Amino acid sequence: MYGFVNYALELLVIKNFGLQIWNQIKKKAEVTMEGQFLVRQIYDDEITYNLIGAAVEILEIPADAILELFGKTFFEFCQDSGYDKILQVLGATPRDFLQNLDALHDHLGTLYPGMRAPSFRCTESESGLKLHYYSERPGLEHIVIGI
């Protein structure tokens, strides 16, 4: 996973729980690097999963809740990083926005070679719009709910 995912998780923990807790999470996850994650560097997915697992144990918050909060923080991180203009052109309605996420990921793939982004499809149902989320990374669907 690209470092911007881990960096957003780092921002979430530091902002809500403090640097000392983030350092405890890194230690528990056996992440020995100094400093912040580099946003354009690819890190093994295991690092992200280990950080989430360590956060669950240390914060005593269920993984789903952490991932949803992470999704919210990640969206804010994307806005603060200058991607807000790109997000605005994805569509004026929730359906258009969600339908165009794959196109955004295709574009970002040119900036982040090797990026393995999830895929999204929308279908209409009797109760409204249904989002279909596809990812090769299991267990991260609550990030999408947070976003």
UniProtKB/TrEMBL annotation:
Gene3D superfamilies: H-NOX domain. The keyword rRNA processing does not apply. The keyword Isomerase does not apply. One of its GO terms (biological process) is response to oxygen levels. Its cofactor is heme. One of its GO terms (cellular component) is guanylate cyclase complex, soluble. Transmembrane segments: none annotated. This is Putative guanylate cyclase soluble subunit beta-1. Residues 2-147 form the Heme NO-binding domain. Keywords: Heme, Iron, Metal-binding. The lineage of its organism: Eukaryota, Metazoa, Ecdysozoa, Arthropoda, Hexapoda. Pfam families: HNOB. GO terms for molecular function: guanylate cyclase activity; heme binding.
